[in-house]
Amino acid sequence: MAKVCVIGAGLAGCEAAVKLADRGIDVSLFEMKPKKYSPAHKNPGFAELVCSNSLKAMSIENASGLLKEEMRVLGSVCVNAAYNSQVPAGQALAVDRDIFSRLITGKIASYPNITVVRDEVKSLSELPPCDGVIIATGPLTSEGLANDIGGITGKESLKFFDAAAPIVYAESIDSEKTFRAARYGKGTADYINCPMTRDEYNAFYDALISAETADVEEFDSIHLYEGCMPVEEMAKRGRDTLKFGPLKPVGLERPDGTRPYAVVQLRQDDKDGTIYNIVGFQTRLKFQEQRRVFGMIPGLENAEYARYGVMHRNTYIKSPGILNSGYRLLESNKPAIYFAGQITGVEGYMESASSGIIAGINCAREVLGEEQAVFPVSTVIGALANYAANYGGKDFQPMGANFGIVESPCIVNMRIRDKAAKKRLIAENSLKTLRDFVAEKNIF
Q: Fewer Cβ atoms within 10 Å of its own Cβ: the N or the C terminal residue of the chain?
């Protein structure tokens, strides 16, 4: 019987393991927790969500929402777990992190042909004999394996810094100074909004840009990824930057119908609504500075923190020219080596999980003697894989789901002024194309 080793039980590794197991392949799933934790992880369970509990938009008129629907077509364990651990978040899909992890951990445990090995892999040479390897260790890959990967790829790794936002206890939020509302009144009022006057915003801004930051090794010389830019670094770009970013008041009104000068939003982070995430407030401020500066936000003066914001280094490989669009390492023979997850240069939880689906499907096909499945670039999942493999520019950076990378022939030479209608047409074409592709290639 064919055997594959999957390293890392994050979202991508779990998706890959299930896809392999579904084809009858024996899987050894290696996970170093709880023997060893990265700087950002604390839960011994699989598929731990570190930075945020949001999996972005649900509507297929948004590329993130479309990606999740594509993954649902492909039987994603992460999308299924997400909808079964959902917490209120307006038009976004947000989850209770602990329930999400437990569901996926339980799913993995239900497979008799998946053997979980709780140990750190420091080198591929330590693995038992196998027909294929999928490296899904994420951007926080431990040093030993990261060095081994550097030797295998023969390329310089990309180095970024990533940050997580603070989480506060709901009972410590002053409800007299906040209000619940959904932006533009769409959906239910799931967010807690902390309104600011002009004077409050300016005082907060001045305190934020002058606050003391924690020392992070190599911070000044390493690239900052825009998707997780620390709020204090973003603020230094200009006084109004936050007003057009995470603190924008557009579409939000107080109960009396007036619009605040700026708004800090809090998103529910667990099923019971006991903790809330400060949206867009990734930070590297020292903990005491987070209490002081964020305590200037109306409603958070006496906030108690379930988790302070933290920062850590992430590592990505320069995938173009190294991987193919099935996430296979081009220069590998036996065993075949695949990569999956954020280490490939896809950005976001669902994007990472989607790469695990493709890597798992293609690794299974290869070890079973079948042809590779190159997913259509008119789908988001295929476009992300194509970006990772074939990006031709000099500034390769992590990429999340977006319609800009999707090649959709259905709208070529069509004049569609309605942007929502255009995106829906792209989405409908994508889903039909994917279903036809699954049937044609006999994916399952």
A: N
Return the SS3 of 372: coil
Q: Where are the domains of the chain?
A: 3-157+317-441, 164-313
Query: In whole angstroms, how far apart are CA 326 and each of 89, 293, 341, 378, 405?
Result: 33, 46, 12, 15, 17
CATH of domain 164-313: 2.40.30.260
230: number of CA atoms within 13 Å, CB side? 26
pLDDT in tens, 101-156: 999 999 999 999 999 999 999 999 999 999 999 999 987 888 888 888 888 886 56
Q: How far is CA 291 from CA 83, 159, 208, 294, 324, in A?
A: 33, 29, 11, 6, 46
Query: Global pTM?
Result: 0.80
Which helix (H) or strand (E) is 278 found in, with range?
strand 275-278
CATH architecture for segment(s) 3-157+317-441: 3-Layer(bba) Sandwich (3.50)
Q: Which residues contact 425 (CB under 8 A, 6 or more apart)?
A: 408, 410, 411, 416
